[in-house]
Write a structure and sequence with these properties.
Chain lengths: ~270, ~375
């Protein structure tokens, strides 16, 4: 049976548009707020939620998401609470959920235990930013045995040999880092993305979603013409930091979603 | 992690290149001051009345600590790789100063990330780095110490990898760093082994070294790993207590984990969040330890113990007054362990790695030894 993530990419392909993926840090600003934020984003047209589990040393993240992790940790967020948040989201929604975190909190919780508990909480997959593909076999085995997708990152600096490993170990989709560096908003898009998409397409038929540095509807529109999914993180976390209302979050999501149709016209909601 | 692959290839090529090795050997000898003396600390030995204590004098190297060994090795590598910009993290500032030094020597741009709290504790080294032409970037995240400086340097590196070499300062980070930095530091043990055989006609019984990331310790230990009779003792920072957050004794309070790209013993809470650490010595103040030390410990080839802030201070005073050597606070932890065990070890030979000199710690010594720092006018003779 396909996972929610796999079904999503089938569906958006039929709708002739890119999938809209939003990153938020679970528990930012509080575990209670996260399900409401997810609901607002879903109303705004978000197709998949990357649910960040905060880690004290977020080396892949820029300042905006670092601060989000800080707020979530201060609110007492841990893996167990994130699983509770996922269950809460599942009470009202079938939106695909991808856990997005670092290796150490997952190791500490236990790989098999996390795989089983995440599946039971309605989570669909997992991405660990600091797990290299060379070391991924045990982790991938545990996640797949529980029926979870494993998504890996590919970067412009990745060699062809690494891209093949990323393709081998990824299910659901491959996450393309659109530029070298950490997460965060940028004024312009990188020209490194198009060649990366080409190189990755050559080794896999999985959907490709691009993130890192995509923060405006214009960026999203350009990326949607090249990739199967567009990830926006820091721009949304910055709004959460500002404590904007759910309707403002929804409106921002909507402004991005409107740019994702392959034909360039508004996608039907 | 592609940058790590590029680095490993470049390092393996350099290591096999006689010209690279010759240039490094020349710099180590004529610029840094190798070989360093193996000094018999006669008065310290007699005061303790037990084991015969030798000091490996890495404190006499240019810039005042062993860090120059791997800085020279890495700067030559960076130049071979065509990188024009060098970044580094620093805790105590010793690695930052050594990095700024080699950057000045080769005319390369130098950016050093340093926790804001460490900048406060080590103002003199901040000034030295700036005097050498480096820019020192304060890191405000987290505990504002070494781990946060490493995180920030890693973020810079992955962003600017095309132009930038990350000159890491200890046996930490992803492969090949722990291996490469160990290789650059192993000269310490190679020299010590030759010298002790010449002087004593036999191998030492115990090697002692402080362990932060563990570069000076692995440097001393490595040439002796095959000599099963030689006991290897690493000394971690016991800080001011056994509670999580009050020390940096990873082998006592830590659990297996992954931090900054290596798997080792990591001080962390039950959720896998990295714990804050404390040590009087900024260079030992880190939540993880070089993975090769974890390996040595797991196969029981090395043992790891700890010395408290107070033990380290007392050891520094003792060394200053018996030998006329003021050690770095990091190295004072190894001295403290030697002082603790020497009286019961009559007939044994110790080699303690005196990895750095104490000049940089003058402010901390003053803060902690107020009785020596009274207003000169109020001292009654």
């Amino acid at each position: 049976m396909p996972t929610r993530i796999q079904s999503l990419f089938e569906r958006v392909k039929n709708e002739r548009r890119a999938a809209f993926i939003a990153y938020i840090t679970a528990g930012d600003p509080s575990p209670e707020r996260t399900p409401e934020i997810v609901a607002a984003l879903e109303r705004g047209g978000v197709d998949l939620i990357e649910l960040g589990v905060p880690f004290s040393e977020p080396i892949a993240d820029g300042p905006v998401i670092q601060r989000g992790a800080d707020r979530a940790l201060r609110a007492g967020t841990n893996v167990k609470k994130v699983l509770g948040i996922a269950r809460k989201i599942r009470e009202h929604s079938e939106i695909p959920i991808l856990l997005f975190t670092y290796l150490n909190p997952v190791l500490r919780y236990g790989l098999e235990r996390l795989a089983a508990d995440a599946k039971a909480a309605g989570i669909d997959g997992c991405l660990l930013t600091d797990l290299s593909v060379e070391e991924a076999e045990t982790y991938v085995g545990a996640m797949r045995a529980a029926g979870l997708d494993t998504v890996f990152l590919a970067a412009p600096t990745s060699t062809d040999r690494r891209l093949e490993l990323v393709a081998k170990y990824s299910t659901g989709f491959v996450y393309l880092v659109s530029r070298t560096g950490v997460t965060g908003e940028r004024a312009s898009l990188s020209d490194a993305l198009a060649p990366l998409i080409q190189r990755t397409r050559a080794v896999t038929s999985l959907p490709l979603a691009a993130g890192f540095g995509i923060s405006t509807p214009e960026h999203a529109g350009i990326v949607a013409k090249m990739a199967d999914g567009v990830v926006v993180g820091s721009a949304i976390v910055r709004l959460i930091e500002k404590n904007v209302s759910d309707s403002e979050l929804e409106a921002f999501a909507h402004s991005l979603r409107n740019k994702l149709a392959w034909s360039g016209v508004s996608a039907p909601l | 992690m592609a940058p790590l692959e590029e680095l490993e290839q470049a390092y393996r090529a350099a290591a096999a290149d006689p010209q690279y090795q010759a240039e490094l050997a020349d710099l180590l000898e004529h610029y840094a001051g190798r070989p360093t003396p193996l000094y018999y600390a006669k008065r310290l030995t007699e005061t303790l009345g037990g084991a015969k204590i030798y000091l490996k004098r890495e404190d006499l190297l240019h810039t005042g600590a062993h860090k120059i060994n791997h800085c020279l090795g890495q700067i030559l590598l960076a130049r071979r790789m065509g990188k024009k910009r060098i970044i580094a993290e620093t805790g105590a500032g010793q690695h930052g100063v050594a990095t700024a030094t080699v950057c000045a020597l080769f005319g390369l741009e130098c950016v050093v990330y340093m926790g804001a709290e460490d900048m406060r504790r080590q103002r003199l080294n901040v000034f030295r780095m700036r005097l050498l032409g480096a820019s020192v970037v304060p890191v405000m995240a987290g505990s504002r110490t070494l781990k946060d400086a490493i995180s920030e340097a890693m973020r810079d590196w992955v962003t600017n990898v095309e132009t930038t070499y990350y000159l890491l300062g200890s046996v930490l980070g992803g492969h090949p760093y722990p291996m490469m930095i160990r290789d650059f530091q192993r000269v310490i043990g190679v020299e010590a082994r030759t010298e002790i055989l010449k002087r004593e006609g036999r191998l030492p019984d115990v090697l002692l070294a402080c362990v932060g990331g563990g570069s000076n310790a692995i440097g001393l230990f490595h040439a002796f790993i095959g000599d099963e009779s030689v006991k290897l003792v690493g000394v971690e920072a016991g800080g001011r207590g056994a509670k999580l957050g009050e020390h940096a004794a990873r082998f006592q309070g830590g659990a297996p984990g992954v931090l900054h790209g290596s798997q080792s013993y990591v001080l962390q809470d039950s959720d896998g969040q990295i714990a804050l650490t404390h040590s009087i010595s900024a260079g030992l103040d880190y939540a993880s330890v070089g993975p090769e030390h974890a390996w040595l410990r797991d196969r029981r080839r090395a043992e790891y113990t700890s010395a408290s802030d107070a033990d380290a201070l007392a050891a520094a005073v003792k060394l200053a007054r018996t030998e006329g050597i003021i050690p770095a606070l990091e190295s004072a932890h190894a001295i403290a362990e030697a002082i603790r065990r020497a009286p019961a070890d009559n007939g044994k030979i110790y080699i303690v790695n005196l990895s750095g000199r104490g000049d940089k710690d003058t402010d901390i010594y003053r803060e902690n030894l107020p009785e020596l720092d009274a207003d000169p006018n109020s001292i009654s003779v």
